[in-house]
Amino acid sequence: MAHVKTITHISGDWQDAEADIFAFGLFESGGLSPRGKSADEAIGGQISNAMKSGDLKGKSGETAIFYGESNRVLVVGLGKKKDFNAEAIRSAGGSAAKAAIGRKLNQVLVEAFGDDNTKYAGQALAEGLILGSYQFLDYHTTDTDQFELSAISVIGGNKGGMEKGSVIANAVCLARDLENHPGNVTTPTKLAETAAAIAKEGNMKLTVFDREEFTEMGMGGLAGVAAGTSEPPKFIVLEYMKGKKSQKPKIVIGKGITFDSGGISIKPASKMDEMKFDMCGAGTVLGIMKTLAGLKPKMNVVGIIAATENLSGGKACKPGDILTAYNGKTIEVLNTDAEGRNVLSDGLSYASKHYEPAFILDFATLTGAVLVALGHEATGVLGTNPKLMERVKNSSEKTGEKVWELPLWDEFCAHVKSDIADVKNIGKPMQAGTIAGAAFLKEFVGEGIPWVHFDIAGTAWGDRKRSYFYKQGATGEIIRTALDVIGA
Ligand code: BES
Ligand code: ZN
Ligand code: ZN
Description:
The chain has 2 domains: 7-169, Leucine Aminopeptidase, subunit E, domain 1; 182-486, Aminopeptidase (3-Layer(aba) Sandwich), CATH 3.40.630. Helix 3 (86-102) packs parallel to helix 4 (119-133), helix 10 runs parallel beside helix 14 (433-442) and helix 12 crosses helix 15 (479-486). It is of the alpha/beta class.
């Protein structure tokens, strides 16, 4: 775990502050901020010279460093003024943090980019800075080249927004850590322990059902997937009930496959290691609940995680087996590698039966097909309620976490009808795999409950270029969007 946890807010003159590097924003054909101009003067006009020469333009993502006698000045491109938004601020924050880490500088001071004093701008800046400071260094024991940023200050901007952004970013970093740790560390037990720590911090009620209990309760989907592993599986329920009793709870559900080998329908060896990330849906839920523990909003939210490994073994579920989910529906397992939907069948049924949900959001690294459709650029979203879907899209615009809706038409729902059971766990070969996954899940959402499914298999980790991501590791993407949808 390595990231800066708090941000110091400064309101005076930047020249009186202490830092190893001072960062200012530059708009493309819009010039420097007043603070940036004073920094330019302090270092003998080097920035304006670079601008005049055409070397420095202020394009989004551009950075340049200049040297004064006793300090360094970083100029961060903000792009065109007309396109300036929260994501530009986040991105500039990430660039500033990365620039400091790259040069092994302990303290960075940034201005409130674009002189935006709104609460959301403050939140976005804190998110960019903290997420940009994140590194996953836990397993380097001999490499002495490791460096962690120690302090971030911001001059100007909205203090309350920054405090909120810091809470959110820390929660995203918690999720990233759980996700980046390998399957022998982030086990279902570890997820339950993390849930317990969050419950304690946020005064939530935690219930954890173990294999014997959830099997007895009728969670045949989870029990079926867990049959092949001796690592104890868990069904985790976290209740955050700080709203009015009459207020229906918002429910978030995560796929928590702490390692997905494919089971008997085993995956190819290449990249199988990446299947430690198959619990990113669970990471999303824990990130959301961790944020609630920190922000303490007056609302009711329930977080549910179905966690197990998916392995093959003497007791493992086999292709052709039929499982009975918690809502009584039968599942014909035609591919044991389509295990995420099997465990989520119980999560969705449990939520629908035990609560009167305002809505349900589920998060899952469900299909390789979503990567084919949308690459690493967007999360696939599907649902049954246009109003809730609209809310998801609006939140995604704000957070910069792109989503793209795929259709859940009846024609697709027919793809998962089984000849001998209620549903089968795969659709048609090579066709609309992400939609088939959602069509399956829909069978387990109670009648009339607004629901959106997020397929994060393309966005939860991977080869993505954003200043506030760390290498190819876990991104923690969609936590921020979900929090916005929830209204936290
Ligand atoms: N965890 C995988 C999905 C996945 C694959 C995520 C690659 C990220 C990268 C999931 O459990 C799975 O294996 N799904 C199958 C479903 C198929 C058998 C219907 C898939 O996508 O191939
Ligand atoms: Zn699988
Ligand atoms: Zn999986």
